[in-house]
Amino acid sequence: MMTLDQQFDTMEKAARGALDTRQFTLDGVVVTAWLDGDTPVIIAVPRLDEKGQEQGVNRYYFKGGVLFGVREPESRFQFEQGKLTAWLDEEGQPQPFVSQVSLAQREQWLLKRAAQLRGLFTPSQGEQRLDRQDPSVKVTGTDRTQWLCHDKLVTLTGGEKVIFDAGKVQASEQDVKGRVSLLKGDDWQDLDMQCHVRGYRVVSLIWRAPKRS
To answer: Nearest-CA neighbor of 42 among 24, 72, 19, 74?
Structure first.
């Protein structure tokens, strides 16, 4: 019988050889997913320390869209039907001194985090409208790419509106990149954005606040 790490490794190898990837910004880090259609199989989230330096990666593994396991630098977690059934150390041995309370708290947190991450890769309303060929969506070419990037950025940030300044943004039928302004609540925020579209999907949307000169 394969160990949990071996099962993770097998999923990694299969994903890298056969699945599409998408990348979106979340909480200042770039989250990468390997997907079967629109369903995540693996989601990788960099871990940052207080200085913003990467300290390893947390990886979430799904089977049929359901959380199967989590691999952190110092821990491994296995799930069955939504229940945390194993909490192991980096050597694959059971973590000592794990109470039922700790187990329940970690289970709840990991399931909540996995749902949040999985939601990042759910098609936006705009993507779904294109899927069903909504006749009210009449944009094509570069305009459609900008429309999709606008829709996705609003969806992922919880904002209300994005302004693309023609003098600060470069756009083509696959890409939009440059300085944009995002309205969230009562505040406008400038963002440096890179967005890549393939077909009816935004496959990469990365943004950050401009660096201060």
So the answer is: 19
If one compares 154 and 185, the residue with the highest pLDDT of the two is 154
**Any idea which residue has 């006749």 for tokens?**
135
Which neighbouring-strand residues pair with 67? 62
CA distance 134 to 176: 23
Cβ(41)–Cβ(47) under 8 Å? no
3-state secondary structure of 209: coil
Q: Which residues pair with 21 in a beta bridge?
A: 34
Q: Are 130 and 200 in contact (CB under 8 A)?
A: yes
User: CA dist 100 to 69, 82, 95, 109, 140, Å?
Assistant: 19, 16, 12, 14, 55
**Sign, CA torsion 84/88/89/92:** negative
At residue 213, the pLDDT reads 58
Whether residue 82 has pLDDT greater than 80: yes
Residue 39 · residue 65 · CB < 8 Å: yes
Q: Which helix (H) or strand (E) holds 63?
A: strand 54-63
**Can you tell me the mean pLDDT for 49-71?**
91
Closest by CA position to 36, among listed 58, 59, 61: 61
Q: Which residues contact 28 (CB under 8 A, 6 or more apart)?
A: 48, 52, 208
